[in-house]
Amino acid sequence: MSHKAHCLILPYPIQGHINPMLQFSKRLQSKNVKITIAATKFFLQTMQELSTPVSIEAISDGYDDGGIYQAESFAAYITRFKEVGSDTMSQLIETLTTRGYPVNCIVYDPFLPWAVEVAKKYGLACAAFFTQSCAVDNIYYHVHKGVLKLPPTEVDEEISIPGLVTIESSDVPSFVSTPESARALEMLVNQFSNLEKIDWVLINSFYELEKEVTDWMSKLYPIKTIGPTIPSVYLDKRLPDDKEYGLSIFKPMTNECLNWLNHQPISSVVYVSFGSLTKLEPEQMEELAWGLKNSNKNFLWVVRSTEESKLPKNFLEELKLASENKGLVVSWCPQLQVLEHKSVGCFLTHCGWNSTLEAISLGVPMVAMPQWSDQPTNAKLVEDVWEMGVKAKQDEKGLVRREVIEECIRIVMEEEKGKMIKENTKKWKELARNAVDEGGSSDRNIEEFVSKLLTISY
Ligand code: UDX
What we know:
InterPro entries: UDP_glucos_trans, UDP_glycos_trans_CS. Keywords: Glycosyltransferase, Transferase. It is an enzyme of class 2 (transferase). It is a single chain. By secondary structure, this protein is α/β, with parallel strands linked by helices. The chain folds into two domains: 5-247 and 435-455, Rossmann fold (3-Layer(aba) Sandwich); 250-432, Rossmann fold. It is 42% helix and 15% strand. The protein is globular. The structure holds uridine-5'-diphosphate-xylopyranose (UDX). The site of uridine-5'-diphosphate-xylopyranose has 25 residues, from helix 1, helix 12 and helix 13. Uridine-5'-diphosphate-xylopyranose (UDX) binds next to helix 1, helix 12 and helix 13.
């Protein structure tokens, strides 16, 4: 196939950022755009699964043997990534040109705003790809502008931001509300530093989900919502089976999970996952374990191997001995296949943005147990705006107790409120599908992006 445009994609090298950019890349490629993903050497080494139809080339963040874990601090990592990353991206652009594949456009993660300078140096078009919700981006924008000043003076201070429902201070991203996250917040606020110089701001969300905030942000930047970026086969059954999920740091226990789910009754299982990064306090892990057990529901729980030692003593052994197949604990699962499985009736989630979008797209009611980063804001929207779940309340120590977990699961799976939530999930699932279907809001935005790309000549 001869391509008319070539996008170089630069993700921030963590699972939750690389996944949506890879899926977006696949969509662009299906529209005849050549794609090259620039991934750090360390990220490439840690990949367990590397099956992707798009090409991947290595760049360097300056820490080839350990990535961020090798850096003395987060600030040091970001600074060195900028220096070494700019050079190695430039070399890559030149190499691709020499090979006969000149790049037209850089699509970069705004955690790495220096990519704009690289694009300008070579006269390339440039698009930022925000992997978080438009609501969360809007909050960071207001911190960037100095309009939103936190930490709050009161525990439940109300906050009004244009384009958003009124939120409380506990609903803002953790980096904004906790002073010790100053470095991370600086990076998040810096996402806006070069935006006036670029051609597009792409957001992994869909218009119908975040209408007001998208309209508001569109007055500031050339916003295009292009999500949900989940593989099209999960949204459209007519497409050929393409369940590969591309780039994964962890190896999914696919057969164990699907075999176990196949033996459970319809809508009976609570699926539990806290994504790729979140670490729970040992006491929280204990509360969660007993909350699940006491709920009397069947559960499939992803406990990453680094978290396993926090499980209560004998918990796994007791599970294995239990007469009815009550629970399965795995180190990683094929989440989309699990969420679309007919046995799953509830998703107990940390509300990472990918997990939230995946639950919305596959119509799974949620129990929201946000931990940090953008998760508190996503959880607020899930419960109060989209009404797709309930949020499990923390106590004064910041822990969600077993009784609360048990109660939330019961509400979602058994009560009248759960039925209302289930009805809502059907509505959002339909809207998510429509957005990416031919002629839907996100599909039109991607089409416009691609046709503009083709008309610009360099
Ligand atoms: C991080 C942040 O924590 C999150 O808040 C932010 O919105 C994005 O970056 P992460 O914590 O990993 O991401 O959560 P999430 O955004 O939900 O992404 C996790 C991804 O891993 C999802 O795409 C999910 O499908 C996948 N996953 C998770 C699996 O494939 N298998 C699993 O067992 C668990």
